[in-house]
Amino acid sequence: MKFMKLGSNPDTFQDDGNEVSIVESELVSDITVRIGTTKFYLHKFPLLSKCARFQKLIPTTGDENIEIHIHDIPGGAKAFEICAKFCYGMIVTLNAYNVIAARCAAEYLEMNETVDKGNLIYKIDVFLSSSIFRSWKDSIIVLGTTKAHLPWAEDLKLVSHCIDSVASKASIDVSKVEWSYTYNRKKLPTENGHDSPWNGVKQQQFVPKDWWVEDLTDLDIDAYKQVITAIKGKGMVPKDVIGEAIKAYTYKKLPSLSKVSMIHGDAKVRAMLVTITCLLPSEKGSVSCSFLLKLLKATNLLKCGEMCRKELMKRIARQLEEASVSDLLIPTVDGDTTVYDIDLILSIVEEFVRQDSKNAQKHNGGEVSDHVSASSASMITVAKIVDGYLAEVAKDPNIPVYKFFSLAETVSGNSRPVHDGLYRAIDIYLKEHPSLGKSDKKRLCALMDCKKLSPDACAHAVQNERLPLRIVVQVLYHEQTRASAAATIRADSIGIGSYESSRSGATTNTEDEWDGVMAVEDLSLSKTTKLDKCDTAGMDAEKNHTGNKGASGRAKGGATPKKVLGKVMSSKGQTGERSSSDSSDSAILLRQEHPKRTPARSTTKSAAA
């Protein structure tokens, strides 16, 4: 720390412990100066020789002892004592902690060059410019002390000089940083290399880009705001480094922000959160989405205002693909029966969809095609995050079905290449809400595309008694169609058999074997299940496949669906869960037990005979 000593005479100020300071001298004190509750027994001549203000307050005639009351001097009794000692020529030590108070008090007492050359104001200004403002840490300390001496420090431009000093040093090229700084943070990913020795001499230690971040966390929010604004204005520091600085400052001042338990604050904390939100760089990715969501959680619980809330939601929506499900679990405010604020997340997802659609329209048809691909990729990622969030909030028995449905349908089905996550969320919701009406169940399940369920999800769905029978039938149909297609591809790839063997294999199906294949046809033609109709020509083409293809198709999709459906129907019949519409689906099972002979099959059998 830099310091300056003034004067050469011994310090003869004596404090008796009762807020009384006396100057030991052969001369009797002829003036008493009261600063607050502290009395100083001094002499007129030293004060008059340095302070223009005392020249106005002390009468020029009369030798009697006078008493002067000063109640508004900046810095109080301690700052006045420094000025008084300077008037006596006593040794005074100035440093970063007391120099601002002394400078403001000297201005108050008018200790300028018109009274005496080399007066206190001049000496302090030289000390500030030549020493304090050239030091990184002293500049920060001095800036922190200015708050106690407002508005004097601002009027004297001491605050602006401090801010410019700190901001200029933070914006300097890291290769020119030669002063000490506090750094206990992890370096950025690109800064984890180690300096290698050259010609046996170790190179200069590597300085990280965010070397200045920790030292600024000691400032109060007002001074910090001014410094960050000045750093932004210089335009030399990357936005992600500024964002990292704001994040570090927030965690230093509000350590509970990163914990599960939420902070409890007053108007001061609310004002700090609003200021931090306003300081965030506008560029996407300058701060993490996780940090933004923590800020939103705090501002939501502390009710920091709608403007602050909307600004954070807009920023979060721009990089929602970076979020995690745990970060999205924001508790509701008082008065809501649900555990998590699903309306808040719905608004964020809607904003994300709007921004993504706007970006896609802006770049569609242009030369920039990579952005469209990135936008689609981010939409797919957000769909996975939303499905994971739905699975968590589905455990809350107080979540209304319309809120669950609204959030689920906000992300289009095309953004979900696989519907396993959505199926899991719906299944959890059905499990936690057993009294849900049949129409609501069907509405929820209609969000799923059975063709986009994985084999494992299909295996689970066909045995899931919570699902409507209509959905189970659809899953079985699409699973058998997928199995038949896979068998066809395998047979085509190995090229087994000839046209004659294929014809022979196709015409030797037994009546029982055809029952399994006809189950698919009956499922597709059933009006009650409202499934997609199978093309009769497609069935004829399937009969002309090789014997291996027919055998594989029967193995994958033959009697298994009929057995599973029988179990599901039996289970639903026993539990009394079948709806009126589900009963119409049972007609499929009857047709599977007594399949009709199609003309194409009869012709094939006679040809085989």
TrEMBL record:
Residues 600-609 have a biased composition (Polar residues). InterPro entries: BTB/POZ_dom, NPH3/RPT2-like, NPH3_dom, SKP1/BTB/POZ_sf. Keywords: Ubl conjugation pathway. Pathway: Protein modification; protein ubiquitination. Residues 210-482 form the NPH3 domain. Gene3D superfamilies: Potassium Channel Kv1.1, Chain A. Residues 29-96 form the BTB domain. It comes from the Eukaryota. Residues 538-609 are annotated as: Disordered. The keyword Cytoplasm does not apply. Belongs to the NPH3 family. This is Phototropic-responsive NPH3 family protein. It comes from Paspalum notatum var. saurae. The lineage of its organism: Eukaryota, Viridiplantae, Streptophyta, Embryophyta, Tracheophyta.
